[in-house]
Amino acid sequence: LLNAEGAPPGCELWPEPLERGHVTLPDTSAVTADDSSCLLFTSGTTARSKAVEHTHRSQLHAGAAMGAALELTSDDTYQGAFPLYTSSAFNLACMSAWVYGAAVVLEEDGLSNEMRLRLIESECTTVYHGVPAILHFLIEAYARGYYDMSRVRRVGYGGAAMSREIIELYRCHWPNADQVQVWGMTETGPAGTVLPARMLDTHAGAIGVAQLGCRVRLVADYTPGDVLREVAPGEVGEIAFSGPSAARGYFRNPEATAQTFVDGWVLSGDLARQDADGVLHYVDRKKDIINRGGLKVASAAVEDVLYRYEAVQEAAVIGVPHSHLGEDIAACVVPRAGMEIDVAQLEEHCRQMLADYEVPRRWYVLEALPRNPMGKVQKNVLREHVLAR
Description:
single chain, alpha/beta, 7-stranded mixed sheet, 25% helix
């Protein structure tokens, strides 16, 4: 909806309220728990964003599940590094704080990491939550200055798997704060899974087990019209979610809804495997798996190795067309301030830790990676940029 003339085809103009005359508000008693309550857009990291339609019921359940995962109480002040229009800000931060009686601090757009740290100080934040990329930059900023983080009792992260290196940095610099990994997406609430702090020592880097009131299973590739089939134990499968926090579907998009919302389950597009303890380990987005001559490469696994190279500040791995192999592996890296990346040395570093077919063959040293407001890398934009070079 736009408040401007010349809207693109298919869009509607937002009506001018002063031109509509007197408007009678509807009788609120007619509203039910299953009525639509909001539209929240997906992150758009692999494709164009879609509007996810949530109900009053799904929002409340999302708040209940996420608040339980973070173990919020009425004594907490929760601060989240999320744009206000996302499910993380609305259903996770605000609804969780409301359900469990916690205070909530929302960060305004454009905050630097130093300003985030000062806000944690001034608001006496006890639970801080963000995506791994934001937390990566935040702990580096903390190490360069002095900030009182003594009141922070918990750090939460989600949106991607957290690297072990950053986990250890937080343990070192914020020893009073335990850590909780969550997984979810706009379509699921964003409720989903949780790795509680008590499981960090044994399963660091995993995304955990189902949250309160949620169910998750790993399923094989789904073809519309078929039935969902679980993969064998230990095999990689797509995370399917079921629970009362799930959205109704995509707004005015029945085709996409039918592909994602299947038989009471939400097909996430995220791949994972389950270990012997029943804990899920994130593998990659289905769309980010690179098929190099029939050999499947998880971009997330290659990125994890790249981040272990001292001179690398940021890294993203994408598949690019190859005339014989179908796809090849391209690594996009950003150097740390004041450091240079020797590509030959970085490639050798990868060869020591990866199979030969997993080692990137194309390298791009960039000034920055394209990110959305959540801090997630926009691989669709990055791929277009690389192919245009």
